[in-house]
Amino acid sequence: MSDEQTTHSTARDDSLGDATPEEQVNLLILGASGDLTSRLLLPGLGSLLAVETERRVRVVGADRADLSEQEWADKVRTALEGEDVPPACVEDTVRATAYVKADLLDPEQLDALLREVSDPVVLYFALPPAVSVQVCQLLEQRGVSEQTRLALEKPFGTDRPTAQALNEQVLRVVDENRIHRIDHFLGLSTVLNLLGVRFANRLLQPIWSSEHIEKVVISYDEDLALEGRAGYYDKAGALVDMIQSHLLQVLAFFAMEPPASLHEDEVRSLKAQVLRATGVWGDDPTTASRRARYTAGTLGDRTVPDYVAEEGVDPELNTETLAEMVVGIDNARWRGTPFLLRSGKALGETAKRIEVFFKPPAHVPTGLHGHDVPDQLVLELKPAEMVLSLSINAEGDPFDLEQKELHAALGDSRMLPYGEVLGRILDGDPLLSIRGDVAEDSWRIVEPVLAAWRAEEVPMQEYAAGSAGPEGWGGVPKPQ
Fold first, then answer.
1. 247 and 348 housed in the same domain
2. What is the number of H-type helices and E-type strands within the chain?
3. Residue 473 lies in a domain
4. Residue range 416-433, pLDDT digits in tens
5. Which of 43, 279, 355, 384 has a 20 to 30 A CA-CA distance from 251?
6. CA–CA separation, 190 and 250 (whole Å)
7. Where residue 42 sits, what CATH number does that domain have?
8. Which residue in 8, 180, 184, 246 is the catalytic one?
């Protein structure tokens, strides 16, 4: 990371922290005709406006596609009404919206587009990464106002060098605190609930360390197959699509040191500290990682073909659909505790959770029987629930022990994850955005695994769609 980026990572631009929901912000969506805008961005905005009805957002779409003003307005209206936005707010937003047909790589057309949008403005890049870089190059040449923010979708590069190059480019347009690298996982209610679970109660706070925690499993298993996403997924795979980005962010929230406040600079710096200390468990990617790909099977009432037979898949890419990676955090709090990160598609059951396995008590009195299951805390990502399993006296013989579960519903989402993240962006608050050094470190962490897989040092296993995955997964190798 460059010295310039380091400076921007820690320096707060106070001119952006004063935005209020009542101030109109212009949201200029570059690449507005694409699937991301209709499927995620506009519904996310709708869920935000349904909760914070006082917000004033002017939505402007821009793309090369031929969309009439009416077609664009209907797209915006459908998204807002689908999230139960109050009718008056829907009408105000639709009345103010606009669509501009423009070639974003034409300097004159891009300049004319930006002149149509007043400050403050968020330039939302709903574009392929390569196109985003070219647009940023044009923005560097043209210059932008001090009230311009950039919102960039992942992937942030395709490896560490390209992530560094992307960071260097966007930093030539605006400073770090006006760059919002988007990971909608940071808007999940359970990830945000980690702040309260970890830091706001006397029970869990003092035992959140390797002294008491044996291992942690962060999983995101889906019962969905490829679902027509071959264009992106086949080039990424489970490791890059989920672990390199989303699950490492969850890990950082889980493992960071207690912040004095929830100021964005402090929280993001503490997350960065965690990831700087994170690496492959035992420094051996051949024992600390696994990969597999689904074969034909059944998901519910439908038949799923082999992954390599799915439309758009290139068998030569040898893409995995299930990945596990074990990492360690080399600091005083977490040294010796393995973190297993796992994600996959086309599995028989969903498992979107954080599982914390506690070490056994230092001493169990002789005469108590049955203490052979570790105490466990489970934080469900979807839905937001917490389950604490403890060894206590069993019914019947008071000298027998058994596990009892304590259940609690955590704070549910106020809005869609995209809405939470977008709200912060519109306010000029980067708390839920990925900082540049964090984006680069996320690539550094997975680089050894990717290299081992490319060298065929880790075999590609198989599992039938609808199954639980290959047998024998989930273990943690002993460090050499």
1. yes
2. 14, 19
3. no
4. 999 999 999 999 999 999
5. 43
6. 10
7. 3.40.50.720
8. 246
